[in-house]
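Predict fold of D-psicose/D-tagatose/L-ribulose 3-epimerase; 296 aa.
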Amino acid sequence: MNKLGVHALVWTGGWSHDEAARAIGSSAELGFDIIEIPALDPKGIDIEFTAKKLEENRIGTTISLGLDASTDVSSEDKATVARGEERLNDALNVAIGIGATHMCGILYSAFQKYMVPPTETGIANSVEVLQRICERAAKHDITIGLEVVNRYESNVINTAEQAVAMCRRIGAPNVKVHLDTYHMNIEEADNARAIRQTGADLGYFHIGESHRGYLGSGNVDFTKMFRALAEIDYRHPITFESFSSVVTGQPLTGILGIWRNLWDDGADLCRHAQEYIRTEMKSAKENVAGRGTAAI
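Predicted 3D structure, encoded as tokens:
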């Protein structure tokens, strides 16, 4: 069965003790299995306190992050790549310390809009760094997820096909594709087909609406996507992600372009998302099972 998660940024924009306790407690109270903790600043996370709150609330966790220009592992500058590897290792320290099962996100480049295409040297640098990160993560049973994002947030991986190719190039058993419905809705020609073609390489899945608001109120065809997930027998985390500048602060508000708010009540948003996802999952599984029975 898929573990259902929620991104911490629906609750809080930071990770002070009060913010961490509220985000973890609120997620657990609503019945989520995991909370995804943003680690853009890994050293700003109190590992011991976070681990304690996760244990107290009996909830699992994953972490996610994106690199910045000064830590871009797809750069051709050796010093920048070295800083990027250090940042990824700092984040991995957090994942290990709090018992996270996955470290996902834009781990292969900077989380920004690029004005030029990636270079082969830059991609090779990214691959080499991630090979070392995956090797270390494997020792702690942590999956590394390469998030597929739109062209305004990276120039390296914008489609599921590119992510699969990157996983093959890295060649580690614990590196997987991380798909996100918000980004897929921008870049993929056929979202369901992209899921089916990713198949066993899919290791993490973000659910987000086309405008980052309430699920079902935008133009993402979730029904087809959930059926595709059922067809490939996807059994890994499904995490709800949504943003509002009521909660997120800079630099994320600017990077993500959150100029209009479609919600201001994180609890109501999450209750709706949880019910929506569970309903879609149940319907998809019954649909796929019914087709199998009909074939017999």
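The chain has one domain: 4-295.
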